[in-house]
């Protein structure tokens, strides 16, 4: 019975996913010196702008600060947003 | 002209010294001339991991200060043809050496050796700055723990700020059965987060404890999984294309044995 629960909870409630999510949050702060709160604000404003043009799936939204390599091999922080679109709005 | 590779991690206790010793031994077994250099001044350790603690006469600080010649400071490992150790000073502290002195030392060493491996101390202070001063390339060691990965990320940032670009990642002490249960971050999780190239994955292996007890690098043992992982890493450093070991198959085999004996 326990195994059944384990099966369904897989990939969401596993402790490694908790670790990964926590890690992503602290690294946003470590890398850019900005707080998770700041990222939430960026997220909110982005949503406001985009929702004028398309319907988006808010649960699937993923916004984070990562690193990206430029042509000269220099590494820069990058804001990456993955925003699933439900439907385009008719304009 | 050889190459100087610094082995760092930020966090202590993730296996930098073991990694340095085993990669050094593996490169020597592959026929290379290798110097391993303990840059952890005041906390000498690479000598005991390699089992050479009884043969130390001079140390890194003696060489830098000119108390002895470079060749006198280097201890030849009789078990591995071509492997030499320059031990750290135990009685001095990290300010005994400057980054410039380390740079000069590394320059001298790479004239003689194919590879110079620098075992970096934990932390991001003076000892770290000294250790990376003369390096051409950097390896970052981490374990699948949130604290170690966080520190590794910080180290990657500092290495890049010091223009040691494209550091390579070694994931140490991964436990495949925990990864499978979702209780440990997997390889992809960590390469995703750190966004640097993967050099190797070393499974958690009890044999490492045993071999360190004896002062014999695990790389020499054919049966040790971790030893095999280190030998593969050495080949990759030399530019060979060796696939990452499939830990799943190994685990599958162990589980089958465990099942056979009714342990699982």
In words, what does this structure look like?
The complex is a heterodimer of chains A (91) and B (264). Chain A has one domain. Helix content of chain A is 45%, strand content 25%. Chain A is built from 3 helices and 4 strands. In chain A, strands 1-4 form a two-stranded antiparallel sheet. Chain A has a two-stranded antiparallel ribbon with strand order 2-3. The mean pLDDT of chain B is 93. Chain B has one domain (3-260): Rossmann fold. Chain B has helices at residues 16-29, 46-50, 60-65, 70-73, 99-112, 126-133, 146-161, 176-181, 187-194, 206-214, 225-237, 247-260; strands spanning 3-8, 34-38, 75-76, 83-86, 115-119, 137-142, 168-174, 197-203. Chains A and B meet through helix 2 and strand 2 of A and helix 7 of B.
SSE blueprint:
The complex is a heterodimer of chains A (91) and B (264).
Chain A: H1 2-9, H2 15-32, H3 36-50, E1 54-56, E2 62-69, E3 75-82, E4 85-88
Antiparallel strand pairs in A: 1-4, 2-3
Chain B: E1 3-8, H1 16-29, E2 34-38, H2 46-50, H3 60-65, H4 70-73, E3 75-76, E4 83-86, H5 99-112, E5 115-119, H6 126-133, E6 137-142, H7 146-161, E7 168-174, H8 176-181, H9 187-194, E8 197-203, H10 206-214, H11 225-237, H12 247-260
Helix pairs in contact in B: 1-11, 5-6
Summarize the structure.
With 91 residues, chain A is of the alpha+beta class.
Key attributes of the depicted protein:
heterodimer; A: 91 residues; two-stranded antiparallel ribbon; two-stranded antiparallel sheet; globular; B: 264 residues; alpha/beta; 8 strands
Strand order of the largest sheet of chain A: 1-4
Percent strand of chain A? 25-35%
The CATH class of chain B, by name, is Alpha Beta
Mean pLDDT of chain A: 78
What is the chain-wise order of helices and strands of chain A?
HHHEEEE
Number of strands of chain A: 4
Say what the CATH topology of chain B is.
Answer: Rossmann fold
Tally of distinct domains of chain B: 1
The pair of chains with the biggest contact is:
A-B, 21 and 19 residues
**Low-pLDDT sequence parts of chain B:** none
How much strand of chain B?
Answer: 15-25%
Counting DSSP H or I runs of 4 or more residues, the number of helices of chain B is 12
Level-2 CATH architecture of chain B: 3-Layer(aba) Sandwich
What's the total helix number of chain A? 3
- What characteristic shape of chain A results from the CA principal axes? globular
Main beta sheet strand tally, sense and closure of chain B:
8 strands, mixed
| Name of the CATH homologous superfamily of chain B | P-loop containing nucleotide triphosphate hydrolases
Oligomer state equals heterodimer
Number of E-type strands of chain B: 8
**Could you tell me the radius of gyration of chain B in angstroms?**
18 Å
């Amino acid at each position: 019975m326990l195994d059944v629960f384990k099966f369904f909870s897989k990939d969401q409630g596993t402790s490694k996913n908790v670790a990964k999510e926590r890690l992503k949050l602290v690294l946003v702060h470590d890398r850019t010196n900005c707080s998770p709160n700041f990222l939430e604000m960026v997220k909110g404003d982005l949503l406001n702008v985009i929702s004028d043009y398309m319907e988006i799936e808010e649960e699937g939204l993923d916004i984070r600060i990562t690193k990206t390599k430029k042509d000269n091999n220099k590494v820069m922080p990058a804001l990456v947003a993955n925003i699933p679109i439900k439907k385009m709005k008719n304009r | 002209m050889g190459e100087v590779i610094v082995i760092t991690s930020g966090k202590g206790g993730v296996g930098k010294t073991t990694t340095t010793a085993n990669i050094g031994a593996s490169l020597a077994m592959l026929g290379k001339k290798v110097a391993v250099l303990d840059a952890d001044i005041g906390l000498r350790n690479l000598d005991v991991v390699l089992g050479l603690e009884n043969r130390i006469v001079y140390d890194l600080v003696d060489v830098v200060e000119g108390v002895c010649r470079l060749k006198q400071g280097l201890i030849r490992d009789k078990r591995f043809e071509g492997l030499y150790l320059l031990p750290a000073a135990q009685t001095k502290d990290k300010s005994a050496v400057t980054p410039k002195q380390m740079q000069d030392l590394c320059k001298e060493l790479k004239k003689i050796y194919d590879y110079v491996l620098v075992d970096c101390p934990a932390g991001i202070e003076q000892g770290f700055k000294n250790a990376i001063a003369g390096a051409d390339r950097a390896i970052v060691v981490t374990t699948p723990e949130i604290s170690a990965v966080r520190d590794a990320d910080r180290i990657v940032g500092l290495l890049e700020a010091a223009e040691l670009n494209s550091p390579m990642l070694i994931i140490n002490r991964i436990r495949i059965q925990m990864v499978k249960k979702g209780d440990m971050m997997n390889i992809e999780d960590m390469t995703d987060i750190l966004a640097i190239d993967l050099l190797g994955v070393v499974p958690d292996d009890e044999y490492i404890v045993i071999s360190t007890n004896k002062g014999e690098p695990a790389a020499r043992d054919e049966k040790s999984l971790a030893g095999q992982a280190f030998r593969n890493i050495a080949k990759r450093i030399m530019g060979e294309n060796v696939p990452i070991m499939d830990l799943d198959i190994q685990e599958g085999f162990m589980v089958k044995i465990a099942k056979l004996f009714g342990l699982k």
